[in-house]
Amino acid sequence: MKLSKLKSEYKSFEEKKELYDSYELFLADKRVVSLLPGLLGKPFYKKKRKVPVLMDLRGNSSWKEEI
């Protein structure tokens, strides 16, 4: 998901909680991981169960193997 979609579609706490509950695992590109706590908020970082996993998702990396 692009950051712009994350910013526009998941503004309220309830929407962020719904996103949190929708998936078991979250991956984040290492280039944007520092922006995520402000965008995702408490639902993701409060329990530390679904904190986004840091990945190098650039086109030339072997991210499929890392998963």
UniProtKB/TrEMBL annotation:
Molecular function as annotated in GO: RNA binding
Protein name: Uncharacterized protein
Taxonomy, superkingdom: Eukaryota
Record's GO cellular component terms: nucleolus
